[in-house]
Structure to design on (222 residues):
């Protein structure tokens, strides 16, 4: 008899693999997902893949239509506003209450270095992925597994927003420098200054993303 706990562990693993690919920008908003392709690339059964699809649909990252199958979700303007509201609540608080020499500082530094390397090679999606890693490391400063898990879902939704806008250089180029400045405050132990800088950063990012989203929807006739 199959061990249900082992099967659930495999489903969770596949769910996380697909979520990670969403965070890395490998799937575009609205893109249909092929069961045949994914079962082969992930080396899993269709039943396991369908369970993972159901998990991600509940998380709002995928949609299911009886006639069209499973597709990547397309963000709305309301969801973008909500994402940034949650980001301000979680990230700014995590920075303000951080402490010196936290292990997440090294992950923040690595993300900044990765962004610089990607920018030099004009790998703008890579800059976006490094940016995601930087903000995940900020949340890890709070030492909460629940927050980490929740923020991982938020990052996947945010990457869908960026994928819809289709202008990674415009979206990500300014923030490599901003991340570096925030890291300088963190490494100097000036956590409240880092949090204040991040609050301004997120406000600017939200304005840019919403304006870009509105232009994109207008161009599509939405």
């Amino acid at each position: 008899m199959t061990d249900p706990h082992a099967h659930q562990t495999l489903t969770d693993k596949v769910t996380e693999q697909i979520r990670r690919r969403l965070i890395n920008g490998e799937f575009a908003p609205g893109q249909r997902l092929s069961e045949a392709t994914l079962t082969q690339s992930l080396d899993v059964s269709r039943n396991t893949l369908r369970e993972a699809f159901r998990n991600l649909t509940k998380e709002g990252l995928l949609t299911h239509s009886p006639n069209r199958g499973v597709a990547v979700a397309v963000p709305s303007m309301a969801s973008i506003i909500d994402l940034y509201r949650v980001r301000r609540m979680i990230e700014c608080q995590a920075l303000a209450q951080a402490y010196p020499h936290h292990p997440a500082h090294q992950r923040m530094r690595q993300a900044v270095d990765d962004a610089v390397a990607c920018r030099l090679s004009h790998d703008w999606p890579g800059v976006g992925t490094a940016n995601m890693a930087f903000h995940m490391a900020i949340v890890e400063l709070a030492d909460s597994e629940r927050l980490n898990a929740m923020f991982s879902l938020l990052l996947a939704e945010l990457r869908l927003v960026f994928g819809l806008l289709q202008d990674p250089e415009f979206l990500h180029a300014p923030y490599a420098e901003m991340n570096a400045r925030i890291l300088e405050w963190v490494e100097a132990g000036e956590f409240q200054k880092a949090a204040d800088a991040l609050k301004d950063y997120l406000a600017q990012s939200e304005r840019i993303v919403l304006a870009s989203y509105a232009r994109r929807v207008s161009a599509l006739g939405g």
